[in-house]
Specification:
4 helices; mainly alpha
Length: 80
């Protein structure tokens, strides 16, 4: 089966769904896979770019410009 036909069939199955938990899982999986693909598409950093990013991160830490990851995750959960 070609890709377009598979996508249409998948969409039809999603439309028939009555279980919200399954739909939520599919949404999360789609977001996860899209993010993973985006990460794979990023070009690798050279050593100077990496050192610059590390220096900026250390500067942010020293100057209190960090946000706790747990807080960010709680905020993201509210978006959904």
């Amino acid at each position: 089966m070609e890709l377009q036909a598979r996508k249409l069939q998948f969409i039809q199955e999603i439309i028939k769904l009555e279980n919200e938990k399954i739909l939520l899982k599919l949404e999360k999986l789609l977001r996860f896979e899209k993010n993973k693909q985006t990460e794979n598409d990023l070009p690798p950093l050279d050593i100077h770019e990496l050192e610059e990013l590390i220096e900026m991160a250390e500067n942010d830490d020293t100057n209190g410009r960090l946000i706790d990851a747990k807080k960010i995750l709680k905020d993201i959960d509210k978006w959904q």
